[in-house]
User: Which sequence fits this backbone?
């Protein structure tokens, strides 16, 4: 009995590295863009546009100049800020955040609520740092590369945000 | 701008603690809670977006309409090279134009003028000699070569003729030709000049040949029937390398008309005197009329001479031919012996062409440097502006008053 013919795998014509980059960071990029825009439809469009831009520029990406995920988040940042400029508005402080109604509150709910309030009260630049650090998991050097500053400055700013959140936690 | 300085030790310690907590290597309830809450704020990827991204990835992320920027048309493949080519052509035109303007006063230039007749003359010296009537007159050119006067425009001379001139136009024509030939062939060429004049019904009015071992020169003053002047010039031009060819035309209708008028007047006076002589009665009266007849006859002879001279001037063109014998190395303008283009001369020409091309390239490069610097500055300024405007978008909204 002849062996069953196995359908050939579809030939992937895209660079495998970009495909891996896209699959690994798509959700984080969306969350980061959402942090900046606070508007879900716009964040979806900007995320699409960011990956389009990244795909077009992928061949010109030079690993010697920085990590690829920092490069990707930099593109997403520019796309998001361009969207903000286009709308002639600044990033809103309150917006369409994640639905946390289903999250467990049994573990020190007061402190959690205080931290959540402190997070909601951060200004856009601080929110951006929180998103890049805690959600995207970038190193301080990568954050510096994304926001266009030095690693020292990025670390100092991140430290201030953490101190602010710690204080909110302790005051609860 | 992105210079890294030493981090504050306390800050560094706190950041290290944060990294350790995030990596699960250290227990810090506060930091863990903060990280947990921060992660909890992350919105999940909408299923619709995930599907759109998957579809776009499968299609190679086709460019969507919003991605096209205001300057997106510049990125279209055919436009950018076309703009570059256009800029290069404009630059080349500017460079070539400036080079031509700058070089025309020094370089020996050749051009044509006259009533449809080919003429070669040195550029800057010709204009000062347009009124010269002497066929053999020469003036030193910018490079020291003999430069003949430029031909007058026959039509222009016609316009300047007296309005009262009657009858057909009488034009005196003259030409000057400077040839170069190998010194060894100077005598043969000189003989050929004389034979050409004879063959065309003309003659040699004057000739002067002087030849040495290294150089020599022969000058001829020819008279050629005006009707065959063009043929004569064409034949003479084939005897050597033409260094210069000049033609002039002068309207002599007034001179012709004046001579004929004086002749008619003198003849009429003579007829009247002859009639008076026939009717004269006294010897004294006869003697007086005879004296006046002598004067009239002299006037008739002079007018006839003038008329003959005018007719001759109109019928025979003056052609001045100068044959310069040169050594083999100097012979011809880019042509070798017997008019051949030798490989050595081709190499010289190639070097000359490359030199000019290199000069043009250097000038273009010099012009491109400031333009490139300006473009670079503009690009930097645009980049800074765009970066600042992007950062401004992150500034907190000012509270409403």
Assistant:
């Amino acid at each position: 009995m002849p062996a069953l013919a196995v359908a050939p795998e579809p030939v992937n014509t895209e660079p495998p590295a970009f495909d891996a980059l896209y699959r690994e960071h798509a959700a984080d990029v969306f969350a980061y863009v959402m942090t900046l825009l606070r508007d879900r439809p716009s964040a979806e469009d900007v995320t699409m546009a960011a990956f389009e831009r990244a795909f077009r520029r992928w061949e010109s990406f030079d690993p010697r100049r920085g990590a690829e995920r920092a490069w990707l988040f930099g593109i997403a940042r520019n796309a998001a800020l361009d969207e903000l400029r286009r709308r002639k508005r600044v990033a809103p402080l309150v917006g369409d955040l994640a639905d946390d109604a289903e999250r467990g509150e049994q573990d020190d709910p007061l402190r959690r609520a205080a931290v959540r309030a402190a997070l909601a009260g951060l200004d856009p630049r601080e929110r951006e740092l929180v998103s890049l650090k805690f959600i995207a998991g970038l190193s301080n050097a990568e954050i510096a590369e994304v926001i266009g500053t030095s690693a020292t400055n990025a670390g100092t700013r991140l430290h201030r945000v953490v101190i602010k959140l710690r204080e909110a936690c302790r005051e609860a | 701008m992105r210079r890294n300085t030493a981090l504050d030790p306390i800050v560094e310690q706190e950041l290290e603690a944060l990294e350790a907590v995030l990596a699960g290597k250290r227990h810090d309830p506060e930091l863990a809670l903060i990280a947990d809450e921060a992660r909890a704020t992350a919105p999940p990827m909408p299923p619709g977006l995930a599907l759109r991204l998957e579809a776009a990835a499968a299609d190679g992320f086709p460019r969507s309409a919003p991605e096209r920027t205001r300057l997106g048309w510049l990125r279209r493949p055919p436009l950018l090279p076309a703009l570059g080519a256009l800029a290069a052509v404009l630059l080349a035109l500017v460079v070539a134009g400036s080079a031509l303007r700058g070089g025309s006063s020094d370089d020996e230039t050749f051009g044509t003028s006259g009533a449809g007749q080919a003429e070669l003359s040195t550029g800057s010296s010709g204009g000062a000699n347009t009124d010269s009537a002497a066929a053999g007159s020469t003036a030193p050119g910018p490079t020291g070569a003999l430069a003949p006067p430029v031909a007058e425009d026959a039509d222009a001379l016609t316009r300047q003729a007296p309005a009262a001139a009657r009858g057909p136009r009488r034009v005196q024509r003259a030409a000057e030709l400077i040839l170069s030939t190998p010194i060894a062939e100077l005598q043969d060429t000189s003989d050929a000049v004389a034979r050409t004049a004879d063959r065309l019904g003309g003659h040699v009015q004057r000739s002067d040949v002087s030849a040495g071992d290294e150089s020599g020169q022969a000058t001829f003053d020819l008279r050629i029937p005006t009707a065959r002047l063009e043929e004569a010039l064409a034949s003479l031009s084939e005897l050597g390398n033409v260094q210069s060819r000049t033609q002039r035309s002068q309207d002599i209708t007034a001179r012709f008309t004046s001579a004929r008028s004086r002749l008619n007047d003198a003849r009429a006076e003579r007829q009247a005197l002859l009639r008076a002589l026939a009717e004269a009665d006294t010897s004294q009266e006869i003697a007086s009329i005879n004296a006046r007849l002598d004067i009239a006859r002299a006037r008739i002879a002079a007018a006839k001479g003038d008329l003959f001279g005018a007719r001759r001037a109109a019928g025979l063109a003056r052609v001045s031919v100068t044959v310069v014998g040169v050594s083999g190395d100097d012979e011809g303008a880019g042509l070798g012996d017997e008019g051949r283009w030798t490989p050595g001369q081709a190499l010289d020409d190639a070097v000359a062409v490359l030199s000019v091309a290199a000069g043009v390239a250097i000038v273009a490069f010099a012009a491109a440097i400031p333009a490139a610097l300006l473009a670079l500055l503009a690009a930097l300024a645009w980049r800074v502006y765009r970066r600042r405007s992007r950062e401004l978008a992150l500034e907190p909204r000012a509270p409403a008053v």
Observations:
- Residues 123-135+146-251+320-348 of chain B form one domain.
- Confidence is low (pLDDT under 50) at residues 66-75, 102-165 of chain B.
- Chain B has eleven helices and seven strands.
